[in-house]
């Protein structure tokens, strides 16, 4: 499997952020946002395809992937929306094309509606955007994160693998699963895994969901038809709330569409991004 490494570092208000760009500088910029408990690694196939015609920016959110993880770190949606706005300024991107998955969807929506971040177009992939959200497991961990942080490593490893596996409908390749869970397995990673769940408050989407009607840029909503984390009914509701938005169901894909149907997702994104030029 080809290696995926982020070579640049940005010092954000929530710690060091690892990032990189693919493609030729000066091409139309596209920014990709990952969700939780993932990292930019989930975008590797899509990013490399988009980089043929775009300069593609990828990053690991603070507390995720190869970015900084530290005790007391603010990794909430409030912090991530602020950090994303800081990154756009650091990259000198005024109106990029934005593609955001899961929590990254909430981050992009908050940055746009609350922090004034401007996009030329927005593609949302199975985003966390509408209440209620969070599985029973997610809520249980959020309420007792300090207990889960103390799990013996073997039990924690098994829990993380099972949880991440459930994001895929057909199942993840073992090497991919290993890479997805790796950031969470050492002592810093175990604490960070439960920290990001503990700080995932629905209040942060409640603050913006009644403002989706204000979005006046081209918007695509892609959704895995077999998503068990957030059902496609939420995708239909979200697309109906955003003026002119179109829903693109993706067959055979669960929540982690980038792994389950990368070709179909990439095709949908390329068509949308080209139309949004």
From TrEMBL:
Alphabetized UniProt keyword annotations: Hydrolase
Domain AB hydrolase-1: from-to ranges: 29-262
Keyword Ribosomal protein assigned: no
UniProt KW Cytoplasm keyword: no
GO molecular function: hydrolase activity
Cross-referenced InterPro entries: AB_hydrolase_1 (IPR000073), AB_hydrolase_fold (IPR029058), Carboxylesterase_BioH (IPR050228), Epox_hydrolase-like (IPR000639)
Domain of life per record: Bacteria
PANTHER family: HYDROLASE ALPHA/BETA FOLD FAMILY (PTHR43194), PIMELOYL-[ACYL-CARRIER PROTEIN] METHYL ESTER ESTERASE (PTHR43194:SF5)
Name of this protein: Alpha/beta hydrolase
Organism annotation: Streptomyces halobius
